[in-house]
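Sequence decides. Consider this:

===
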Amino acid sequence: MIKKIIGLGASAGGIEALVAITPHLRKNGKSCYVLAQHIASNGHTELIARILKRESKLKVVLAEDNIELQVDHIYLIPSGFNGVVKDERLQLIKPKADCLSKPSINALFNSLACEYKDKAIGVILSGTGSDGALGCVKIKDYGGITIAQDPTSAIFDGMPNAAINTGKIDHVLNEKDIPSFIANILNISSKNNNVESELITAYDPKDLESLFERIKKLSGVDFGLYRVDTIIRRLKSRMSILEIEGVPNYLEFIKNSPEELKKIQDNFFVSFSYFFRDQSAFIALELLIVDRLLNKKEGEAFRVWVAGCASGEEAYSIAIVISECLKKYKKSLALEIICTDLNEVALHRAKIGSYSELAIKKMPSSIVSEYFYFINGNFQVVQKLKDYCRFENQNVLDSANENLDLITCRNLLIYMKRTTQNKIILIFKRSLIANGILFLGQSEKIEYELEKHFEVYDYDSKLYIRK
């Protein structure tokens, strides 16, 4: 059985990095590697495989569709295909015609995150563009470990820099140091394999309570309200990075390194967002918003709360939708969007409102030109949108917002305990006007409490109306 799976993503200049890395990867009986190297559709995949075979101590395999993954192997995704991992098999999929980066590193990393969660490792090597950056975010959000080649050592620094700029890269390493770092992680994992269940079931709850209490004194954030499995995944990931074995040793480390409290708090937060996440859901939301706007009198307020706004992408997406509706129907309303989160780093980014090309690339060019301007290599939100949005460091449980027309809370509740979820749903009910809109994330399933207080408008889009 595969205990750890390592995804390698490379593009231009990546072969040189791979040649430096592969000779130093050793057999360990518990892990395998899957490589997504950008290759032209008529590229010489076989040539790359031969180069790696010549250098590698592990068996290098040019993957076929539905091939079963085995430990101590390196699997190379062939040209013209994307590769995704499912049930310990590598499936080859023909990419869409408009897919420029083949094989897609994001597609591979996303599948590793979903299948292996905290047992996935993503490594970004030399390349142009930004493929793999969102995949690293996904791996990190599922508790895995992410590594980027040091841009100063990469022949092309575009991909490593794009990954690093997400804020989700654990380690930036020279390519020569990557094999030993991975070996160290695998060694620690092997020692911890026998106690993984202990980390979840047999740890002393008082130790975790002590950790939560220290964080609460530091920042006021109570992680005792979060699901334990989510916390444990991130705790294990942080311990692996620090090369610490066992929860008691980590708690001792915190005593001697107080700054670690802030780092583990940031690690516990899940601050992942992007513009117009789930586009079909936004289309359904727009229809509801139009209906509400048309029933408003000129100059009346339209109030929104974006709970768990992260780095602002969703808040600005909502602002764009409403702004476009107001323009289309020639309505003049007082738009107020209250955006709250507990992650101060993410809030700071949201207030600045500056995003990479990766963040805005799926938006129509007309929207980009209307609501962003290019400066210092990034796309800056126009002042009009920033004026609509008010970003605040606030716990969703402490909210006193009232008379809201719309609340969006997408993929925050899934990290909370059931009792906490129910409390938050009641807060949302109290905060919304009659027939107010609640917009949740695709992964949230809390129907019982919702059904008591909300009517389903569009289940697939997770849109609800306050009773």
Residues 193-202 have pLDDT under 50 and may be disordered. The chain has three domains: 4-187, 194-268, 279-466. The CA atoms of residues 27 and 72 lie 5 Å apart. The first helix runs from residue 14 to 21.
